[in-house]
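Worked example 2:
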Amino acid sequence: MFTGIVTAIGRVAEIQDGPVRRMTVESPYAAEGIDLGASIAHDGVCLTVVRKTAHGEGSRYDVEISPETLSRTTMGALSEDSPVNLERALKVGDELGGHIVQGHVDGVGEIVSRTDQDGWMTLVVRAPSELSKFIAEKGSIAVDGVSLTVNAVKGDAFTLMIIPHTAGATTLGRLQPGLHVNLEVDVMARYAARLGERTGA
């Protein structure tokens, strides 16, 4: 379980392809603070640490990515030196600063447009049509693992306003039209829609 509050930007150091892709990530997280088997969200995708070593004041650790995850997220588009948003799993008692994020990507969206003004960044994102019913104005959504508030919705597209801090502290500041992002809709919206289907509401 995560909150969508990115705590570091990591770097893809190495990718090894096979039946399961193995990715080595450099992070500022101290190696002694990462348990083998720990869950870390990478651009919103929950992955399990299978190996770790110290690297300067931080760490290098390996995660494995299944073919299913590669086909349903942007993980397959990552290459060596790609930056990735990182968030460690929520601990009991931690502050829930964003919203409840599971690290299970629902679909891949496309950046339609970007507007920069007075330090703010406005993004229009096109979501897969099957996700549109879960995206509501002033509702929450995770974009590449970042908890954000939806400002407006029009058809399959929705608008986000990114504050300067978020743009600088995550990879969102690098986004441009045509690029793709991992989307995870608000789990409460999904449950509400499912309840409505069952009750006929």
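Residues 132 and 156 are 5 Å apart (CA to CA). The longest helix spans residues 187-199.
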